[in-house]
Amino acid sequence: MCGTLRASDAGKKAVLMGWVNKRRDHGSLLFIDLRDRTGVTQVVVNADRDAAIHEKAGTLRNEYVIAVTGTVRLRDASTINPNMPTGEVELVAEELRILNESKLPPFLPSDTALTNEETRLKYRYIDLRRDAMQFNIETRHKVAKAIRDYLSDQGFFEIETPFMTRSTPEGARDYLVPSRVQPGTFYALPQSPQMFKQILMISGFDKYFQIVRCFRDEDLRADRQPEFTQIDLEMSYPQPESVWGVVEGFLTAAFQAAGSAIKTPFPRMDYDEAIRLYGIDKPDLRLPAFTDVRECFTAENLQELAINANLPVIAIRTPKVGELSRKERDDIKPMFHSKGGAKIFEDFKRIGNKYPDAAAAIAKKTAMQDGDGDLIVLVAGSAQAGPQTAMPTHRKVTPAELAIYASAGLLRLALAQKYADRHGIFKKTGDPANDFRFLWVTNFPMFEWDEGEKQWMAAHHPFTSPHEQDMTLLETGVDSVTDPQSTVSAVRALAYDVVLNGTELGSGSIRIHRQDIQSKIFRALGMTEEEAKSRFGFFLEALEYGTPPHGGIALGLDRIVMILAGAESLREVIPFPKTARAVDLMCDAPTPVSDRQLRELGIAVKK
Ligand code: ASP
Fold it and tell me: Is the four-CA dihedral 544, 545, 550, 551 of positive or negative sign?
């Protein structure tokens, strides 16, 4: 291969095949950088030695595919290239074959400046020849292999589940495949193998995994793909901790395969605590948590500042931001988006001038480092808005508190991003100095109120098990589907997310294994028995035949590889990705199909 010859190979005969990366003519000497997946070797063609080869070599263009037979030779000391693994040697050509020519590509794999992404995606085969893409795809292979090996060693079977199936309950829109044999009926591409993997537990395969493509037809946000790959697993008789142990194990193997070490076990945090401390369910632990500084103010202070004394006053500390200019301080306010009744105090100096005692107490409580220029911004409830009681629930965090926490949570991240260059905490993905701060977020609420539909929805998916201790809340609320005050609001799920540096890598749960409880959950979600039967009848029936307790999780492989390859987007680690408009620019999919195909399917397209 083109990346393998070393000084110790000098004198040996070799045959190299690959692409012409570059050609340099120096009169009677002609140099070819020959490239394949493993690297580049310099080939020398000497006219004085063989005029015919020299002439043929003169016709070579970039990206021609050639085969060269020759002898490996040590380079002169002055021409050694220490930046290339093969830089001490060259291959002296004795025979040259042109295996194939190439049109002039729209860009070259060796170009240092990247062309625009549309061109890269259209000519993906050229783009994939670039070193960076070869590295990304190799990393993907290594990571997937490490995960496979780890899980196999732990006794998991990799089992395939169908792609042509029926709607799964992950809550996104399905991609549909029309059936020709039964006109008017459709398969759905799986949003996840959820029901199949649960059925595999019923079938006695107590440890299942699959590195599997999933399909979700969502309005694509910047970095989403309609088809993406999940590391999907399920096990019988688990506690949540057993699932976490497996995930920590295969992530350790995956990170190791890519040259990074991580610490296990990951810390754990209740959903409620995550909201209270970070205002978000996927906290970035690289930044300090909130501090509630309400007590640092006197009742009169709060009144003068028109702060609602019944709600938390959140101090957000962003470390090492340094002195802010007037203009920079003015820029903070527009970064704040109040989720209702929350207001911002971005000028901590002014607070200090007016309320020195409070400011000193806040500095102490937040562990503010004045010399390092920590920035403190306060978010509090507005007294004008009054204590918000519009939608009380049975949750520990009331909606009014949630509004403050959530507004502060978003601001905390926005501030960290804005000053990323200064505080040095947010490193670019792939920076070896990166701190991998993993976290398990647990005990999510079972149900979420959908304001549009005016009813309760499953926060994870409807097969997630409620907490044993919250069963009575489920019982009392099971029929108050359209009541935002229902006790189901307080039911916690045995659901968990694994989070890395503020990104959700995956979620899972312990499942419901009893049909009676599953029916109750469907009822609480406003599904009639007939509806549940028509959507999941086969699954409900399967539950009645001796279903062991089971649970699992799914993690996004693309995102993990992206982090490990140090890539900036998912498209950089997927060989043939789609654009934000779900188009494959290389093969130009989706396309219209012929009238005949439509006729056969019994489908008419409305213009
Ligand atoms: N099927 C779920 C998902 O794709 C994961 C799980 O519950 O295992 O999000």
Answer: negative
